[in-house]
Amino acid sequence: MRTPIIAGNWKMNMNPEQTAEFVKAVKNDLPETTKVEAVIAAPAVDLPALLENAKGSNLKVAAENCYFEDAGAFTGETSPKVLKEMGVDYVVIGHSERRDYFHETDEEINKKAHAIFRNGLLPIICCGESLETREANKAEEWVERQVTAALKDLSAAQVSSLVIAYEPIWAIGTGKTASADQAEEICGVVRKTVAKLYDETVAEKVRIQYGGSVKPANVKELMAKENIDGGLVGGASLVPESYLQLVNFNK
Ligand SMILES: O=C[C@H](O)COP(=O)(O)O
Q1: Which PANTHER family match (predicted)?
Q2: Are 212 and 8 in contact (CB under 8 A)?
Q3: Whose CB has fewer CB within 10 Å in the chain, the N or C terminal residue?
Q4: How many separate domains does the chain show?
Q5: Is 167 a catalytic residue?
Q6: What is the pTM of this model?
Q7: Protein residue with least CA distance to atom 6, ligand 1
Q8: Which helix H or strand E contains 163, and what residues bound it?
Q9: Residue 213, annotated ligand binder?
């Protein structure tokens, strides 16, 4: 049985004071971590406030990015080693915004995945096609290629424990959600890709999120799909009431 995982991805929208207020507002109404994992991915500058206020609660903490080296002369980068020391649980990598605006390559994303595991953290690896790719009927091969590249040289045990987020770029922040069937179809492709690269046992364990305009109104329908084990949520994760409705989708 895969434990559902709903992760808010705040992107560059919150400051430490807002972070503290948010956590205080949600911390007592979060689901048991064995029922649903509730995660917030926050900018590095907000992580201390997030970790401090989440102490003793069921909230898990993710960074929105990290570098693939542990330490050294890499001005402006965030060390995965330090994230682990701080108490972070997950790191989001390969988000389409990072691929598009910061030109992150598949190779760098794979190096980051290795660095995250090396430091005892877990990656949430994002993939997803543009509208152009979808309209050219190439979404499946695009996602298969991204997943294959991101998982290169990871062990079966590592892949069994990580999270893959399928986020069609055309559905991010647009209010245009992929239909539950469209989301399920490509999440199924992600699982098949893992089965092809590893085996069915690994594919059965890997958790796959859908992301792209997920909100309280559509979360149940998405989560009812066989291959969708969670959501990576932007806009709707910024407001405590809506975040709580998302993580408590099965109540
Ligand atoms: O990481 C989250 C996604 O980019 C989705 O963002 P959104 O829920 O605002 O569409």
Answers
A1: TRIOSEPHOSPHATE ISOMERASE (PTHR21139)
A2: no
A3: N
A4: 1
A5: yes
A6: 0.97
A7: 234
A8: strand 163-166
A9: yes
